[in-house]
Write a structure and sequence with these properties.
Keywords: Aminopeptidase, Hydrolase, Protease. This protein has 12 helices and 17 strands. The longest helix is centred in the middle third of the chain and has 21 residues. Helix content is 34%, strand content 21%. The strands form 4 sheets. The chain has a 6-stranded mixed beta sheet. A 5-stranded antiparallel beta sheet has the order 11-10-12-15-16. A 4-stranded mixed beta sheet has the order 7-8-9-17. The chain is α+β, with helices and mostly antiparallel strands and 397 residues long.
Length: 397
């Protein structure tokens, strides 16, 4: 049995426990997770029986790639009849149980598309299955971890290739272009997928000095001006100056899987206040690492970090500034940047082997810049493995 069939069977077992008749997977990333293909369409996973991948395009690609039966999507008007023909007794069993109960990912499914599904399957009761899928995806298999580990290696090699080229007076976007060039040469797919509504991310957040501390809509501690209000994040046209922190928060996507890493650079040296703040970020990271083991509750790591930065007198600058502070320390990562678990208040997930988490303590100083560090970790049976491998400390140019 391959990994896709194992994932399908795990979901089927969970559906049976909940009394769901089937799960209609609609989002590209989730379809890929369960089939190994990412063609336009719907994946129907019954509580019992073989999944069916209904594809609009490309049918040929799906037939070659997918670990599921593949058919043309056809007209939505015939969806009910086709499912009834494919799974005899499905609709009758649902009716006998008081109604057909189907799940889908309501966190990402557009309302208009959902209404089309409701019309195509009248009488079905729809459940939100998005959390179940996201919780399943929290635990990575060895092949998923291998892809993330490779992405970490690519990030490290790319950063080291670019560092000798950094110079005073270089534009932020030029530095970003150099990094992206090196990443792409080493296999970065160019995509950094996010699940949250209206969230977008380019390869990373690369900015320096005051512009790095400019807030934006992106849910992170550093914004960046971007090149235009239509893309208000990351690198802008500001020129790198001696003595200001250069935040290099970058990712890489290999075989669909992501790594997330931050390093702080400077031309010359940081002033003592920013240097001290950076040192606190490493102290927070070390204290968090000491508790990265199965059973630790994810929110406890965030609360511990809050205590540390308060003791250091830096609470006002932690993970942003003022109304733009973000309320987390880290996040799960895999096929998407914003996976579970989140290291934040209210997230009670105990750490478990197979989770991959990016931890990113940072301090934002308006008008001066952002300093911080971010590493990505695999939770193991006995503790953790750090997947990111780039050198730590403020990197002096």
């Amino acid at each position: 049995m391959n990994r896709y069939e194992q994932r399908q069977q795990w979901l089927q077992a969970e559906m049976i426990q909940r009394g769901w008749s089937g799960f209609l997977v609609t989002q590209n990333v989730d379809i890929y997770y369960y089939t190994g293909s990412m063609q336009t369409g719907y994946l129907f996973i019954p509580a019992e029986g073989e999944p069916l991948y209904l594809v609009r395009r490309s049918l040929e690609r799906a037939e070659d790639e997918a670990h599921a039966a593949v058919e043309p999507l056809g007209s939505m008007k015939t969806l009910k009849e086709r499912l009834a023909a494919r799974y005899p007794g499905l609709l009758e069993a649902g009716a006998a149980a008081g109604g057909l109960r189907l799940a889908t990912e309501l966190d990402v499914l557009p309302v208009q598309q959902f209404q089309r599904l409701q019309a195509a399957l009248p009488g079905a009761a729809w459940e939100d299955g998005s959390l179940l899928v996201r919780e399943q995806r929290m635990i990575k298999s060895p092949d998923e971890v291998a892809a993330i580990r490779q992405a970490a290696s690519v990030v490290d090699a790319s950063l080291e290739a670019v560092i000798p080229q950094i110079r005073e007076g270089m534009a932020e976007f030029e530095l970003m272009a150099l990094i992206e060039h090196q990443l792409r040469l080493r296999g970065h797919q160019g995509l950094m997928r996010m699940r949250a509504y209206n969230s977008e991310l380019i390869t990373g957040m690369v900015a320096a000095g005051a512009s790095a501390a400019v807030p934006t809509y992106f849910d992170g501690p550093a914004g960046g001006t971007g090149l235009h209000p239509s893309s208000p994040q990351s690198s802008g046209r500001a020129l790198l100056q001696r003595g200001e922190p250069i935040l290099v928060d970058i990712g890489c996507c290999i075989d669909g899987y992501l790594i997330d890493q931050t390093r702080t650079l400077v031309i010359g040296g940081l002033d003592p206040e920013l240097q001290r703040a950076y040192e606190v970020t490493e102290q927070v990271l070390r204290a968090t690492e000491a508790r990265l083991q199965p059973g630790t509750i994810s929110e406890h790591l965030y609360l511990l970090a809050l205590d540390q930065v308060q003791e250091a007198g830096l609470s006002a600058h932690f993970m942003g500034y003022g109304a733009d502070q973000v309320k987390f320390l880290g996040h799960g990562i895999g096929l998407e940047i914003d996976e579970l678990p989140v290291l934040a208040k209210g997230f009670k997930y105990p750490l478990a082997p197979g989770m991959v988490i990016a931890i990113e303590p940072k301090f934002t100083f308006p008008g001066r810049g952002v300093v911080g560090i971010e590493d990505t970790y695999l939770i193991t049976e006995t503790g953790y493995e750090k997947l990111t491998i780039s050198r730590e400390g403020v990197i002096v140019i």
